[in-house]
Amino acid sequence: MKTTKPVNPTTSMSLFTTLAIVMAKGAEAEQKNHCKKNRTNSNKQAPRSIPETPRNSSMSKSFLIASFVSCAVIAGCTTTDPNTGERKASNTAKDAGIGAIAGAVLGAATSSHKDRTRGVLTGAAVGGAIGGAVGHRADKQEAELRDKLANSGVEVQRQGDTINLVVPGAISFATNSAQLAPDFYQSLNKVASSLKEYPDSTVQIVGHTDSTGPAAYNQQLSVNRANAVVVYLSAQGTDQSRMQAVGMGSSQPIADNKTAEGRAKNRRVEIKIIPRDTGPTNR
User: Are strands 268-275 and 243-247 parallel, antiparallel or unpaired?
Assistant: First the structure.
């Protein structure tokens, strides 16, 4: 399976910084001209309208600067989807852009009028770096997991910065059993290795069943299966405090329970790898 090389966050930040400086300097010059015009017109006896306050004006410019920069970064940093082959914005770039906007607005809000431009640049740079770093780690870990788990039957999905590993029942547990199937060990060993390499995440293991049988029985079975995965990953060196076992029973089907094929898809375990630090934007 073809894997995608993650975008280096320093590339995004280099483009981001250049554009931010250009836009911020332009906004600063415009603000100076605005103040100069106000002083020139102050002696004129004309009806005065209520002007936009400098703080709100600067805040608006700050948001426009960060928005423009984040859009430029996202548009300029693309990657290839390993499943479809389509070009799309990388998660690194998206997170850098979102972090830049949040950081720029926060920097403008917490700085004095005199230092507003510097506050915008500093906040945007810090926010963009944090967001880009989180996205870059997730991109890199996803690519490595796709490579390690190729042809294993485990599906690697991406939901924002969360990596979701979907393990079908055919390779995880026998029918009506919470004992790990032998075919599941190798995949779990690779997941455990990845979790040790990337420790800055929490892990949610979610058990699912089909709708056959009593709901209460299925609920307990899904909890027992999720706990079995937690115990195994812990034995392979994953810190148990990072992990949470959740049982959903048959409440979240992804296929039709009326068919054997659909029920087989619904019997599954999902391993969700969630970054601990999402920077200025908690999602």
Answer: unpaired
